[in-house]
Amino acid sequence: MADFDQQLSLPDSAAARVGAWRDYVQLAKLRLNGLVLVTTLAGYLLAGGGLADPIVLLAAIVGAALAAIGAGALNQYLERDVDRRMKRTADRPLPAGRLSGQQALVFGSTCVAGGVLLLALRVNLLSGFLCALTAVAYLFVYTPLKFKGPVATLVGAVPGGIPPLIGWAAARGELSVGAWVLFAILFTWQLPHFFAISWIYRDDYRRAGMPMISHLDRDGLRTAQQIIMCTLNLLFVSLLPVAIGLADGVYFFEALVLGAAFLALGVRFAQRRTLSRARHVLFGSLIYLPTLLIFWLIAALQ
To answer: How far apart are CA 8 and CA 280, in angstroms?
Structure first.
């Protein structure tokens, strides 16, 4: 009878384990951190790393991914009380009580430390330093600033632009002009991307006490103006690879058309500031970045 009861309890135990794994996956923000993998890989390949040393490439990607996962988990640990007040984050593992703060702290710290050490010991010290800098800037500069004012978005774009530098440093052991152009593209791209997010979830951010640019921008006019200005800047910055000799005329035309299409989404949002058009800007930004990087990579390989 005892064995029968134990057998009956096994499905519940297995379900609990599956649930715990799902919570850790949610804590890791795998979908969001997929962008870190893409941009780190882009930086490595654009630096000329190629596939000659796949072990170094794998270590660079895994190290950057671990640190990003850890930083995301630690961010949720630091903001667990704030997340309870936001509809889109209230069901995260910490505010929902499915994981404890200590579990998130241990998981996040271990991932960050593991990522930094992997890069420093297996790749090179520069990539390890950049990885550590990303985590520190994200957790201890950007995260507190989110409660101070809209300047946090500008500051937060700095750690968001470092992953391709990690890939570049892994391939070359230094940061040349091309690396900083790549950083400039990532930095500038994040601004219209996050401005769209801030307006879509403006009520959530207001409840959480985060004074984003959309905090007092009920009709979206100010946000739309910033999106247009930033997409114009991005269009200019995206053409810099041609100016420094790392891309050709074909890339110039492709980047110009792609940037104009992204700008058009911002203009449409400015004309009629609806939730659906703000989402079009957001989705457009997610298509724009990997497409631009692919265009540059194709140009660089020719």
So the answer is: 49
Residues 207, 239: contact at Cβ < 8 Å? no
φ, ψ dihedrals at 214, nearest 5°: -85, 5
* Residue 199 tokens, joined: 């307006």
- Provide the percentage of residues in the chain whose pLDDT is more than 70: 94
**Residues 83 and 65: beta-carbon distance below 8 Å:** no
Note whether 171 and 47 are within 8 A (CB): yes
Q: Is the pLDDT of residue 275 over 50?
A: yes
Q: How confident is the model at residue 219 (pLDDT cuts 50, 70, 90)?
A: confident
Residue 92: phi and psi, rounded to 5, are: -65, 160
What are the distances in angstroms from CA 147 to CA 82, 140, 165, 223, 227? 10, 12, 28, 18, 21
Q: What is the pTM of this model?
A: 0.90
CATH code 1.10.357.140 for 17-175? yes
